[in-house]
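hey so u asked for the seq, here:
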Amino acid sequence: MNKRLLTIPIVVFMLAGCSGGTSSEAYENAMESGEQAVQDGKYDKARDSFYIAREEAPKDEFASRYSELAEKLEGIRKSADDGNWQEAGKKAADLLKQDKLPNIFRTALEELQEEMQNGQSETDRLLHHLDLTARQADDGNPKEAASRLDSMLQSEEWKTYGRSLEKDAEEVKTRIAAAEKRQLAEAEEKERLEKEEADKRAAEEKKQQAAAAQQPSEPARGTQGVYMKKLAAVEAGLSDLDHLYTEGLTELMIQGEQERYKRWDDMLNEIYGVLKKQLSPSEMEALRQKQRNWIVYRDNQADAARKAGTAAAERNYHGTLAYETEQRCYELVRGYME
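ran it, structure tokens below
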């Protein structure tokens, strides 16, 4: 039997003298109900029960103190429910320092204190993950960051311990949105610059071809003359692809570059077949080696144009194949044909 219970007979006697025992019974029932509520963690109910006991016995020190302690427990519980783990933990620690703290309240406070420590630890862990997620977005990975944040907000840990971090989560969402906007703007600018560069190169190619066509040269004779005309015909025939470039759509321009490459590649194969008949075995073997080296060079140039990884880069890849193959056709006709 605890100290409080030892004093109850005195209180019962006093109350019995006033009201025939009814008040003492109400007092005892209220105190027992309050103690049970403390054990059950229902601190608001405990507070109300001890308040009733205090009303029944205004001069009873236990009812008054228990009512006060229950009210403080309720305040600690509310701070914890709001996610204010540090504040709740400090309040619990301060109460535990009191002299002659009733065991029922000491046990409740120790349990609360352990809960506060766990809550603070989980909150710190969630805050750390929020920081990592924000950094991931800032480093240029907003899509991955958004997925990571969504998983966190759906987790049981967040539902239990994330109440005090709602503002932090909103700030991370804002940083993710800003990173997505930056990424989109950078991609659009990169594609614009690549298109501008490709257009400049195409214009320069046409300018060089026009200048070459205007320069007087000795009329080519024999097979060379025939194939120079064929090359000019291929070049002129490419005008039927102009409609693929007028709308400025990358997909259509890629189709145009692919077809341009195919026509020049077909012509290159035709020229190579003619040279097999015209050149001596030793000359043809030397040309084969040069042709292998040229293929490696052409593919490297095309791969370098595609490194950016955008749709415009894909257009540059096929455009480079077409350009290098066209130049090779002219080199073989001018340098090897009779």
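The chain is about 85% helix and 0% strand. The longest helix spans residues 166-214.
lmk if thats what u needed
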